[in-house]
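user: At home tonight, take the chain set out below, taking as long as you need, and be ready to discuss the fold:
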Amino acid sequence: MNPLHSASHTGNHEVVVTRVSDTQWHAVEDDRVVGSGDASRRPDGRLFISVDAWHGAVFDHIADAMLADLPAPLHTVVDEADHDSRSAWERAGFTTVRREWGYLVPTDPRVTRLGSVRLPSGVTIVPAGEAEEDPLRALDRVVRDEVEAAAGWRTMPAEVLPRPAGTTLVDPSKYVVARHFDQYVGLVRVTPLPRRPRIGLIAVRADSHRRGIARALLAHVLGSLHRSGTASAWAEVDESNAAATALFEGIGARRAGSTLELVRR
């Protein structure tokens, strides 16, 4: 779309960075694409960018072009173990604002000790794919509003899919629901990824906290995965979320990585 943005040299050839669409930039050297940048706006309004380049100089010039085009603040995420990527973003003026722990979650009830979990009085579990869609969407909106009013939805960076305004559930079949009599009060979303299922969200209405509903939901989900032959699931927890950390570590989940969110204001 835009003409030449910036140019540099990585050896014998000039590298030219061009904005090729509203959300994409290319770095070209000797008629070859040697790097790219992408931008995406998340449902909570934050603008995230990423850069894919083999050479640090190319990374820097793509980042410079994107920073010149896009309004601040800008966000990105990196694997905390990837020191080169983190350093590259820091060169561009980004600083760390939060950490998210990645957990390997066992499914065997002999490890999780969830096999004996009893449902709270009046609570039943609605298996994945069986929840009524309208009440499920209403519950999703309630818990999102409650999270936003407390810690803020920014503490859940897994929410990356672009969605039409007002739409929060992409695939209701992935949700297991806790129902208290005739009201939906808790949910957990499980994505059946090829390598390892991912627990993307577990939430309970504020007026139903401290009743063991989250543990009951996890007991159902992990028990179902274990019976299907799946040894472990994956989950991410913001390091500031003490309740979620205690919940997962209390069932034997172990930290297996971490992700950093960085911002340039």
